Amino acid sequence: MSPQTETSLRFTGGYPPLPVVVFAFGLAALMWFLYRRELKFVSSRFAQVPAILRSLAVFILVLALAGPILRHVTTLRQLGRVVVAVDSSASMQLTDEAAGAAPVTAKTRFLRAEDLLLKGTTPLLKKLAETQDVELVALRGMNTQRLWWNRQGGKDTSGDMPATFELPANSPITNLDQTLRAALGPAAAGTALVVLTDGQHNSSGSPEEFSTALKASGTPIFTIGFGAEVPPADLALLSVAAPESVFSKENFQGRLTVNDSMPAGIPANVRIESQGKVLWKKDFTTDGKGEKGFDFIFPVTELPPPAPGQRDKTLRSVNILISANGDRAALEKTRSNNARELSIHLLEKKRKVLILDGRPRWESRYIHNHFDRDDRWQATIIFDDMAENAVNGSLQKNFPKTRDDLPSYDLIILGEVAPNRLKPESLDWIVEFVEKRGGGLIMIDGQRGKLHEWSQGKTAPLIPVRFVSSSIKHQASSIELTTDGQRFDALRLSDSPSANTALWPTLSKVNWHANVEALPGAITLAKAQQPAIVFRQVGAGAVLYLGTDELWRWRFQVADLYHQRLWMQLGAWIAAPPFQIDQKKLSVGTDRLRYSPGEASEIRVRVRNDNGEIITNAQPRAYLLHDGAEVATLQLEADPTHIGVYRALTPPLKAGTYEIAVAESPSAPRSEARLSLHVSDTGNPEWATLTMNRTLLETMATNSGGRFLREEQAATDLPGLLQSIDRKQVITQETILWSSWWWFGAAILLLTAEWLMRKRLKLV
Description:
This protein is α+β, with helices and mostly antiparallel strands.
């Protein structure tokens, strides 16, 4: 934009210009009046000239005494950047109704957004492009698609403004975190984000945390809400909370959440079926009061047998259905949100964790409770009873009896236990468990310094730190993630990476921490002045060292919110990876047991030799089969955390059942054992909620310093709100007139001319 300059007159004393000019003009008029008396006997036609010259000189001199200053204010304006993001998910294909009335409009939300931006005499997008740099993007699931841009007053543009979006609103999910981050790019001052959506965020990430982070960079979000706020008549299955796996002799239980916005008094039911067999059913009557939950439970033995020809006999699937009955059931808005498929894996054994500690510390007891309450884990805890003779103590009595018993565990959590409280062979087994068997070990230091003794002798290779002479620091300290620690999902206590990094220092401080240094090859993940969490690979296994036993203080006012999440994530990360197929020489597993369409599965493979030792230089291959046909050949790569474990990601999976076959090397035959994956059709989450999520949209706008607008407000209010993001540079220059040579030169010139005229008129 071209610079704009404004010039104004002001006076040094702060006097308003108008009174000063009026006063000067009055004195000049008085001078002219007095001068006339002297000229009344002069008959020359130039007789009035000296009076005029004298009056002008008085006018200028009076202004000079007031200290006139001429101010030039030049404004250099750089256009703001506006990113307009349009939600193209399936929920934007809905039409909206008024309560108890016919549809307000036959147009879908997506078409109304198109009309707002691209239609009319002066489309909103064109109006914005006249005063801003504008980019138009579409939010499509987890990705963004650029549709048009116009920058620098049209010098940088993708072409003429489109008349339509030229794409359908059919994305199966809405993500208002990852997609908006990608659309915005690096946040910078002078940028604004305009989001046209119904706010139905149903994917990973936290839009609230994302919008809060934008406020620091001065990037507001203006959310434009589409959709009715009064729900239409509908029954929807919102969510299913149920374990991925269950033991074959137990009950399968969970909780269903249903949204009921139907008229009151309509009979309905929710049920769970498998191969036409009803496993559980609950009748209810609609009341139109919104969300309601149903707890379900049924014996696993009631599940029908696997389908003929299915090699993996541990996989089952069930269908969850809700329906309204009777003539009034036709009032339901849509039935596409009434069903969901759920896969269930039957297990014969749980993952096992062995907790050893010299005394029942708060940290140890809370950790045991966390693992004990988790259906996926079986926790064993042994405290040292400090018997005078260690042979008779509880540690040696309850420790696994044989060398082959210890590898049945996936994880050992070691507290303040002196090595001499265990048998020498038990120490050998622990080292072998980590180095050769690929097990996981987490060490929790304590104020008594018992772990220091493990850094000597045969157990020294397990310790990833060096203990400084003054080993304990009694000082309240916050724990902060290092740059390396920010990369590990196991330390993620928030869905947003930036919010997670900011969260750690705000958690309760620990009152002491060990004074240690990380050894070469070890990675410091968190610090409390000194390293507080240190990771290192040891042979085929992994070791994690914690320099304090006071993380339990994080439970203050939030209970298990952070402490339990951290420990369950650490356990899953450091423990030997789980394998659904665990044979003598070949183990195959996946990162999860339940997948939705479009997700990828992480396949894990481990190969052992005839002695049960892990092969660290294997070259396994995995083959993905769908309906008996090979759809992908996967070359596995070494796991950076667990030596001897190999991983690969499948392509995005469609709904259906897959099999994974593995070969120990490129030339080896495929294994007979097959691992099955069932990708369940979880229903379209876009149809779960049919109203606008105004709460989320207002929160995003408020957190970022922007505004929430309904669709009918956008055309009139948005252009004015966006003017605030323009970047302006103001340059002020002042000319001091009262000390200017030209100013006084004019007065002298006028007085000189007056004297010459007086002389000619013979007045001197």
